[in-house]
Structures are given as structure tokens and as C-alpha cells.
Amino acid sequence: MRKLAMSLAISLGILFSTSCQETTPVRNTEGSPIATTRSNVSNLTPPNSIGQGRALERVTSNGRRVALVIGNSNYKDNRDYLPNPINDAKDISADLRSFGFNVTTKTNLGLEAMQEVIADFGRTASNADVALFYYAGHGVQSKGRNYLMPIDVTIASEAQLPFKSVNLNYILEEMDNAKSKVNIVMLDACRNNKFTGKFRGRGSKERGLARVDVPKGTVIVYATAAGKTADDGRRGNGLFTEGLRRAFAQGRKNKQGQIADPNLNLADVLLTASRWVEIESGGKQSPYVNGPETLKKDFYFSGSAQQEARQQVLAQNRAESARIKELEAKLAAKDAKLAEKDAKVAEERRKRLAEQRKREEAERKAQIAKEEAAERARLQATQTFSHGGVTISGNTSISESYEPEMVSIPAGSFKMGDIQGGGDSDEKPVHKVYIKAFKISKYEVTREQFRAFVNATNYKTEAERGDGCWIYNGIRWSKKKDANWRNVGFSQTDQHPVVCVSWNDGIAYAKWLSRKTGKKYRLPTEAEWEYVARAGTDTKYWWGNEIGHNRANCDGCGSRWDNKSTAPVGSFAANPWGLYDTVGNVWEWTCSKYTSPYDGSEMKCLLSGASARVFRGGSWSHYADDVRAAYRNGFEPGNQFNDVGFRACEVQVSQVR
Cα–Cα distance between 561 and 584 in angstroms, integer? Predict the structure, then answer.
């Protein structure tokens, strides 16, 4: 969040939520439990708040206030229908308009419509005094991230969430970029739903929304205690939303033109809403608050107190301006004498800074050139690897020809699956697998090698023939019509792994390579892939059970490419069998069908069909837990993403099925 300005326009972020996160008590930043009784619901001020140690002024109700309100009820799956969100959205919109908000109200939105109105709202909120976003409908969490569900959502597996719902971080990013003085987000998204029942493994146990990292100056209000489900209400609104509306009513004029509370601030709203929810639920639902007390008292929804405060500040400013003008008149003569000297000093300083920047830029370019030369020299070195009495050798330089450089893999057996325990359900059962000798490419197939195939055959990838490729920008996924293996959303060289290629594109490449060389190429089976990725080890990663630092490219691996882009192939150390990038960088397609749990399909190779295929290894955009040797993922063979590629496998004719 932006720093607080010492003026009436302070920067404030307020998040209302009916989230029912984990089952442990919510804690403040020092780790102590936060109670939510009627007596202390407005007295929760954590350390490190933006108001700590500063004299805050009231937030004026004058100025431009904008709001986007969304209510989703009519979900595609009738079992997920919610009766109240549309009512909540319309009623909250009316309340906000009474407080001077310019409100855009939308109901029953699909994914594309939600993304479009949120993007429009980001532009509308630019430099506004107050920007408010309200959402009522289904919401879920997955691995610490929160997602709001459009009405056209169909979730077959947890892996599809980022592509078929709206990431809460996307909304917060749009509002932050708008540079509005006050940001408010209200989420009534903790209704009972069946989406999490479709998730496998640990994801199926996560209820409600996950806690978000609270930046300075953020007040968080939950509709109910941790691990609980908020009441959907019996009078046309969710219980907590009804409490908010009753609190808002204190600041509006009645039919006689009277206002119950002419100075309604945030603290008053929270206290009134909390008492209402506790009483109506018989103590079963008790909201709690975490945020600076100063902000709750100084943010006003309506009333005259802030206007009077503003007039007082303006009067003080006028008096101060008169005094300053008098001083300025006395200093004018001195300023004139010093102006010429100051100009000379400023010019000399500008020249010194320009020369310093020029030297630093030259040094930076020299350092980059030095690093690139060292990298090229390392990739051209020849190494021999020995493991388990088997010697595997090969030139580590990346071949400039169309044919990938291969490593011979000896026959053997290994334990496949979640050896350490704690993995996902589809990593079971752990079972012994026997592998025949074969060859596999030392590196992931590069853009240069894939281009040779395209140039020789005029092949068009499925992304180029269809509606583009899924692109991840570090916050959310979106499908781009113009995205394909040539345009992946970040910079690549010929020595980067090819991405935005589907399973079908990988099969086409392997068939062409077979015809070109007279050898038998295909994608590796899932069992073959885990065999070479483990390279004789039984730990999470081939080097041990901890991800370490700068040993691979993933979100949290400690490399300069983390959660940004692919790295050139071979940028990290090879595993004991001489293969590079089996941990992270890009997911790699296999030719095996995805099944859960294992049923033997992991040892078979399919060359056609529409069933989901396995891809392995994790990528630059995934967490360390997702780049383990045992971790699995799968998608239909016609899909393409900017973090998925493949490597080639050479086998005997009898091994092709």
C-alpha cells in the first residue's frame, strides 16, 4: 500500500469479508488471539498500522467516491444456487449511493464479464477519493490464494481454479494501481458451497477464504469466527450484510429528515453490525476485527464532523499562508542573491550525477557480458557423470543441430510415488516400477530445435491455429489470442525451452524427428520421467528434501527467474544422471494418461486420444512443493500454457505402443 500522506486525503485499505478460513483462532501480528465480543469489537489495533505514531485527520466525505458491486446467484450448477447475493448487491448499492458513491451494479456475471468490469473499475477509480468493491457469491481458497467464482464456472480439479475464476489479488492490484486515496473491499463469499468437494488431497479440506497478507493501513473485518460458516440470512440478505445495512441506516435521513447518527464513522458501523450479528445468531456467529483504531474512528461514511474539521484545517491553512507570505517578502532579497549560486551548484551536481550514471551503466553492461561469456563457456564444457556403477557421458554443449542431445539411461527399477508421505492423493500408491533402457534428451526441447521442425514442415501449433495460449503474468492466468510459442509473454532466446506447445504439438515434433533421423522418438512415459528425475535418489528433489537456494527455477527457488519467466536450459546443475532442469523451469508433457490413483497407465504410452495427459516437473510459476519428483499434474492434450514444454525420448521399436 502507498504511504500515508499527512493530510485529509490519507491512504486507507479496508477489507470486509464473510470468510470462514482455517479452524485456528485469528491472531494479531504479535501472535495473541483476538476476541470479538460486544465490548471490544472496535478496539482491535495491531502494531505496525499506518496510523501508529502519527496524528491522523478525519477522512472527508467530500470528493469523488466510486464503487463496483457484484452479486452472483444463478450458478451453472443448480446445486450451488444462492438466493441472497443479488439482493445483497442491490441493497448495498442503494446504501452506498446514499453516502455519495457513484455505483456500478452487476449481477450474475460469467468469468469474462467479471474480468472486464473489474478492469473498467480500475480505470474508473483512478485517483478517486474512495474506491469500493463489493462481491456476494461463492468464493474458495486453494494453497493460500483466494478465488471468486463466476456463475459459468465448472471445476473438475483444483488445478483449473486459476483459469476459471477471479483471483482476489487481481482485484487488489487493479485498485492499488488506480492510486485512489481510500480502498475498500467487501466480500460476502463464505456461503456453503460444493466446489471444494471437487478438489483432491489437501485442497478439499480448506474451507472459506484464506488469510491475506495485510499491508499497512488495512482494516480487516470477518463476518464470523475462524472455521465457521456465515449465515446466509432469512430476510433477503446475508446475516452480516443485514448487520452492515442496519449500521449504515444510522447515517441516513428518515422520513422526517432526521439522522440518528450525524457523524457515522467506521468504528460505529463495525460495533453496530457486530452486536446485531451476535444477537440474531444467538451467539453462534461473532464477527471480529483487525486494524488500526485511528483509521476506524477517522473514516466517516456521512455527517458534518468531517466537514467542520475540514473547515478548521482550511482556516488554519489560511492563517499560516498569511504568515508565510510575510516571511517570504523578507526573504525575497536573500533568495534572489542565492538563486544564481544555487543554479550553478545544481548544474554541477547534475553533471556529476550524469557522469556517475554513465559509469554505472558501462559497468553493468560489462558485468552482463562477462556473465554471458562465462555461461557460454560452461555450456560448452564436457562432463562425465557416474552413479550406481553406471557411467553416463555426453557433451554438455547445446547442439546447434535439429536433433536434441541424448543421454543413455540404463535399465533398472525404483519406487514410484509419494515416498516421504504428505503428498497428494494421486501420488499413491507407492509402487515398484521396472524400466527398460532408453535415451532421453539432456535438456528440455529448445525454441531453436522446435523452430527447425516448424521450418521444415510449415507446421502450425494448436495455439496458432486456435484461440491462443494461456499466459501467466505473476498474478493471474488469461488466454491471449496472439500468444503462441513465438510470443509467450516474456523474453526468450533460442536456448530457452519452447513453451505454449500442446501435447499434440509434442507428438507431431517427435514423429517428424523420427522420420528425419530414422530413429524412434516419442515423449517419455510418466514412469520413465520420474525414473530419470529421481536419478537413483529417494528424496523430494534429487539433491535432498529442502529446496535450497538457486538450485532451480520456481516460485521460491531463489533464482533470478523465479515467478517471472523461463531460464535458458542448463542454467543449473545437472542431476546425477546428467539431465538438466528436471526440477522446475517448465512442466514437461509425458505420453501417459492421467489417472488417480495409479493404475498402471503411468507405464504406458498413448500416441493419440483425448483423455488427460500427465505433465511433470513443475515450472517457474509454481511453488517448491509442486516441483517435487513425485508431484503430478494433468490436462487435456489440446491445451497450451506459457510454463509447459517437453523433452524427447528415444526407444527401441518394440517399446513404442
Answer: 11
Q: For residue 611, give the amino acid letter.
A: S
For the chain, what is the total number of helices (H) and then of strands (E)? Answer: 12, 24
Specify the higher pLDDT residue, 656 or 179. 179
641: three-class secondary structure by DSSP: strand
In three-state secondary structure terms, 238 is: coil
The H or E element containing residue 596 is none
**57: which 3 cell numbers?**
485527520
Cα–Cα distance, 386 to 371 (Å, whole number):
29
Minimum mean pLDDT among 45-49, 283-287, 397-401, 447-451: which range? Answer: 45-49
User: Sign of the C-alpha dihedral, residues 298, 299, 303, 309?
Assistant: positive
C-alpha–C-alpha distance, residues 271 and 218, integer Å = 17
**pTM for the full model?**
0.50
For residue 447, give the C-alpha cell: 525454441
User: Shortest CA distance to 298 belongs to which of 54, 571, 98, 515?
Assistant: 54
* Chain center to CA of 116: 18
Segment of 12-26, 131-145, 588-602 carrying the highest mean pLDDT: 588-602
Edge-to-edge strand list for the sheet holding 182-188: 101-107, 65-71, 130-136, 182-188, 12-17, 218-222, 288-290
Residue among 460, 466, 501, 470 at smallest CA distance from 589: 501
Distance of alpha carbon 596 from alpha carbon 526, whole angstroms? 13
Question: Dihedrals φ, ψ of 637, to 5°?
Answer: -65, -15
Handedness of CA 343, 348, 352, 354 (dihedral sign): positive
Beta carbons of 190 and 230 less than 8 angstroms apart: yes
Distance CA 278, CA 267 (A): 17
8 Å CB contact between 523 and 646: yes
CA distance 45 to 48: 9
Give SS3 for 276: helix
